[in-house]
Design goal:
Blueprint (H helix, E strand, L loop, with lengths): L3 H15 L3 H13 L1 H29 L4 H27 L14 H13 L2 H14 L6 H25 L3 H31 L4
Helix pairs in contact: 1-7, 1-8, 2-3, 2-7, 3-5, 3-6, 3-7, 4-6, 4-8
C-alpha cells in the first residue's frame, strides 16, 4: 500500500493542508490571539469536519469505482486541476509584495470554537472534492472499502499533524515572525511542488 509514489502524494497532501487557507489561517489567528488551547479546539473541530468528509468519500467511492471507471478518471482530473490551482495561488502570493494576513481569531467558549472549526470543513465543498480526488489518485480502480479506509487513516494522520501543529506553532510569537520573514520562499516551494505533482498525476498511467 505504501509506495514511493504514495509517499510523494502524502507529502503533497501535507503541503496542501498546510498552505494558507481559511482553515490554517483561522487556526493561526486563533492561536496567536486567543491562546494555544483555543487554537487546539479550533484545529480539532476542523479535523472532525475533515474526518466526516473523508469517511463519506471512502464509503461512496468504494461503491462506484468498480461500476463506473469514468467517475474515477473524472475525480482524478479534478485532483489535478485542484493541485494546479494551488500552484498558481501560491505563485501569486510569492510574487506579491502585499503582506499576507494570518487570519482573524475565532472567539467563544471552547465548544463554540470547536463547532466553528467543524463548520468550516462541513460547509466547504472543496473538502469532499479533495478527499475524493486524493482517493482516486492513490488507490487502484478496484480498491476495496478496507483499502480506502486504510488510505484514509494515513492521510488523516497527516491532516492531524498539520492542523494541530499549526495550533502549537502559531501560539509562539517567534514562529509567527519566522513565517512572515520567510513567507515568500515558502510560497515558491509550494508553487513548485504543487505544479510538479499536478503534472505527474496528469501524465501517469493508472492501472
Amino acid at each position: 500500500m505504501i509506495t514511493p509514489g504514495f509517499v510523494a502524494i502524502w507529502i503533497a497532501w501535507l503541503m496542501a493542508g498546510g498552505s494558507p487557507g481559511p482553515a490554517t489561517m483561522g487556526i493561526a489567528g486563533t492561536a496567536m490571539n486567543e491562546g494555544r488551547t483555543a487554537g487546539l479546539a479550533f484545529a480539532l473541530g476542523i479535523c472532525a469536519g475533515s474526518a466526516a468528509w473523508g469517511i463519506a468519500a471512502a464509503l461512496g467511492l468504494s461503491a462506484i469505482m468498480l461500476a463506473n471507471v469514468w467517475v474515477f478518471e473524472v475525480i482524478r482530473y479534478i485532483g489535478v486541476a485542484y493541485l494546479g490551482w494551488l500552484a498558481l495561488k501560491a505563485l501569486r502570493r510569492a510574487l506579491s509584495s502585499d503582506e499576507v494576513a494570518l487570519g482573524n481569531p475565532v472567539t467563544g467558549t471552547l465548544s463554540t470554537i470547536f463547532a466553528k472549526g467543524a463548520a468550516i470543513h462541513l460547509t466547504n465543498p472543496k473538502a469532499i472534492l479533495s478527499w475524493g480526488s486524493i482517493y482516486a489518485i492513490v488507490a487502484p480502480n478496484d480498491a476495496s472499502l478496507a483499502m480506502l479506509l486504510g488510505y484514509f487513516a494515513m492521510l488523516y494522520a497527516g491532516s492531524l499533524l498539520i492542523f494541530i501543529g499549526y495550533a502549537f506553532l502559531f501560539s509562539s510569537a517567534r514562529m509567527v515572525n519566522a513565517y512572515r520573514s520567510a513567507r515568500r520562499w515558502f510560497d515558491f516551494a509550494f508553487a513548485g511542488f504543487f505544479g510538479v505533482a499536478s503534472y505527474k498525476i496528469l501524465t501517469v498511467r493508472l492501472s
